[in-house]
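User: Before I run my own analysis I want an independent prediction to cross-check against. Here's the chain; please return only the structure tokens and, at the end, one sentence I can use as a sanity check.
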Amino acid sequence: MATFINPYTFVSLPEKIDRAEPAGHHRAVQGNLCGALTVTWSTRTPLLLPKSDPPAPEGRVEIPGSAVKGAVRSLHETLMGGCLRVVDETFVPIYRQPAVAKGEGWSLGRIRAATRTGRPLMVEVTDRTVWVPVKPLDPALGKKPESGDTIDIAEWAISMTSLERLEADPAGVNSGTGWVILIGDAQTRGKSRRFFCAAGRLPAKARILDVTVEAWEEYQRLCDGTEDMRRYRQNPDHGDVRGWTSRPVTAPVRWKGEIVGSRRRATGRLWQDDVAWVHVDEVTGTVDHLSMAAIWRAPGKGPLGERFPPGLRACDNPEDLCVSCRMFGSADTSVADREAEAVQRSYAGHVRFGSAVAEKVTTTTVRLAPMSAPRPGAGQFYLRHHSTDPASSKEDLPSGYWGSEHDEGSFRHVRGRKFYWHGDPGAQDSPRHIARSEQRNANMVEDRYLVPKGTVFTERIRFDNLSRAELGSLLVALQPGVLLPRCEDIRSADYALHLGGGKPLGLGSCTVAVTELECWDARDRYAGGQAVHPDPWAYTDSTLPDVARLAAPAARRRWPALSRVLRIDGVDPELLWYPLGGSSPQLRDRSFNFFSRTNGRFLKNGREPIKPLPDPADPDNDQTLEAQ
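Assistant: Structure tokens:
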């Protein structure tokens, strides 16, 4: 049994924030305070620089103001009950399908027409599917088989097996043109005794159907998260994937140390003579789904926009903005109707962030541990659960998945706003941000620049037309130690925000200090009056009653949890791993098995219920999880 703390947690969303609530979403009313802040960011853990912004030769390091603004705004939205501004409301996760055969309506199909950019237009649908061992295909074809090759199968060689599928005796497989084959990846078949490919019979009278635009767009989304596409994004010029936008690209299929054939890489594009699994809508007579394997990938159900309270949806009306959008700006991301007059409904905001700059920094280069994109589809962590029971049958999605039976009736809401615990990876015997020499997924590691802890960045933040309460809320977001300790009934605490990447690895924790506050009201500024320079900490403290009235009451109830999440000592840094970890290579290499064993999958001879994350609002919970 291993004990660990997951690097990220969630501050829960209110069930409801009424737009009519002045503290939540309110009609914009301009204040009259203008001025500037001088802010320092002191790194408490190494800071990861973006690939696009390496250090200058003289050691100058600059963090764009937009990056700083994003970090501050995210915290401000949580403090004040602002909308979920930077959210793709159409997002739906992609999952690997349960290990059951393709259901009714699925067949192999050979692409008969496609555009030059790889959009399939018409498919020739096969009328029978038989599974054929790959190795005996060599003599029949005179070469290693690949997807799109054709063979003949004698009728006497076909029989039903205990797996409830048709398989072919190799003795009845010969060269020919009656059946087309599809070879899949071998990575998920390590325990099988033989490697099979699917063969589809081409009927004497071809059945050629149109492919819907929706099917092609869904297929592109399914391919987007594949290993093939990850490799392309990592190195577009690599010989394995070069040219994938204009032609089919293949990959060798290795089985028990031997190349047994070639498969098509999953790139989201299909050309003439490519083969894929197709689903036919018998009502419309069209192909409405495409797949690269019998057990492949499928979208979940319930888009993100339907999984959080409507009152938190991104503001789209400049006359009715949440306090965060009024201060930091609101972009109109809606798509215009081609037939309608274009109208731009954005709002510029009242706070502008300059770049954070550090001079004469000695950066280091490290081989960074592998990181991938966030996985919101891990519903055991990302969703709120009314039940932790596992799936009812092997045909059902694990109950933690978006769109599982636990979403019947109404979609479960997302857990909350995502935050990362602070914890110096250098406090661990085997620092989690450093790749190991025996790294299992070595193709995902790379050399990156780190700014050492103890580095101080300085920036200027300018503001105009803010009310006293709004200025106070900005100051609280920069120095939460003025407000949050009293929410946990403690005297003081050390708080930090995150900058840069690598947050799951413990990088980028920074303490923030407002070292200078320069402020005018509008009359003094334009009448030539002198700015006042109050003590930033004392001024922030004096605005707290106004900030509390400005914040949504439902958001204020989350302040104790937020206080713990932002504290440097919120959790034990030595136990922070993603997940499991420690100095044991065995634990770290099998760490992601934790997710498949905690997502509520069906097991015939046991139970594996959902294992959710602990609630950071519980002061008595040490946030640890256990895994075998």
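Sanity check: The chain has two domains: 2-92+311-332+346-366+418-586+615-627, 95-299.
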